[in-house]
Amino acid sequence: MVINKEIAIKTAELLLQIKAIKLQPQEPFTWASGWKSPIYCDNRVTLSYPVIRNYLREQIANQVEELYGKPDVIAGVATGAIGIGMLVADYLNLPFIYVRPEAKKHGRKNQIEGHLDAGQTVVVIEDLISTGKSSLNAVAALRENGAQVKGMLALFSYGFNFAADNFKEHNVSLNTLSDYDHLIEQAQQYGHFNDTDIELLKSWRKDPSAWTGK
Questions:
Q1: Which of 52, 61, 76, 89 could form a disulfide with 98 if both were Cys (CB 3.0 to 4.6 A apart)?
Q2: Distance CA 158, CA 14 (A)
């Protein structure tokens, strides 16, 4: 859920501006899953732009406090959200940890890197919400280690209904700075896309696994 429309529009504008998000309705990308998609998102690009990354960290940090108060720990989901998670933790002067997709096969065999005590409250930071699978995997790992996960904040979400259902099923509160609806609104304002392009962009999210762009 997006909390603030003004922030959502501004975030979408910035992500498009630096090409952290690319839109190609006529020349779709192919995801690792095999899905055809008119959008490709790599929010790690934001880390290369100090003014933009500082804006994003402040907005996420403000929403952390607004929604949950100050947790004991900020957690980032590896690898995409390690950078922004650290920035948010630093801004709030809080400890930071990050969660791997699975435990390492060597050394200490950690899945969670950093110090976490059982019972500590945690807010999880993500860069992108797609299906929600990797994000919820991180939440599960934190809970298994005794953390009280208060919720999750992300930079951007594709806004898939099945992802929202996944978060609801696992009792995880999710809020994002921006999402696909606000991105399309901003793309229309840019004037770079004709009506056919906009309809292609809108149709993709209705059934992304079957979308072909034709």
A1: 76
A2: 16
Closest CA relative to residue 39, chosen from 8, 5, 16, 56: 16
Assessment of whether the complete model's pTM goes beyond 0.70? yes
Give tens-digit pLDDT for 32-63: 888 899 999 999 999 999 999 999 999 999 99
Q: How many CB atoms lie within 10 A of CB 20?
A: 24
From CA 173, how far away is CA 4, in angstroms rounded?
16
57: domain CATH number is: 3.40.50.2020
Domain that holds residue 30: 5-197
Comparing CA positions, the residue from 166, 163, 116 lying closest to residue 141 is 116
Residues β-bridged to residue 148? 121
Residues 6 or more apart whose Cβ sits within 8 Å of residue 204: 25, 37, 38, 39, 211, 213
